[in-house]
Amino acid sequence: MELVVKKYTGEDTGRKVSLSDAVFAIEPNDHAIYLDVKQFLANQRQGTHKSKERNEVSGSTRKIKKQKGTGTARAGSIKSPVFVGGGRIFGPRPRTYGFKLNKKVKALARKSALTYKAKGESISVIEDFTFSAPKTKDFIKMLEVLALADKKTLVVLPAVDKNIVLSGRNLERSKVALAADVTTYDLLHADHVVFVESSIQTVENTLN
Known about the structure:
Blueprint: E1 2-6, E2 12-18, H1 21-24, H2 30-44, H3 103-119, E3 123-126, H4 136-145, E4 153-157, H5 162-168, E5 174-178, H6 184-189, E6 192-196, H7 197-207
Parallel strand pairs: 1-3, 3-6, 4-5, 4-6
Antiparallel strand pairs: 1-2
């Protein structure tokens, strides 16, 4: 598959770049995508939820009434879960929601996501560039000339470029990611993926 390479100003460079069929044209695996996205979302959870059990609730430990002769159930502590203000039975405890996923499955998921984007003609390639200074208006102008201003856009860079990252981080519908770190979730969440030309080789090398 070949795509036209444009400048970030919207002009045509007259060149084309070839996308590897081993990355951008495989048989998509929906279950691998599901697992990778599930793991990504699980890793975002803090897991800091906690409730107090009966041994952690503050209060007296004295027996609140005599054992027999009251006509009601026996009770040994005001901290019992059956009383208001008592501890909670089997309450939530801090835990990690993340789980292991094999590298090959994660790679397959990203290849599948890239294949879906390629089939949907939702990938663009722009020539390597940088901004002279961090300016959000320059980033917005780039999206406008690429006809992507009204779409959720993922811009994939080959390496960290501070000016580009700072220019795009305040935009709600745009995200900047590194080619080596781009996730399946990021690819699927975006309506359109913009690859800086050098980043394509990085993605292909990473996934192959």
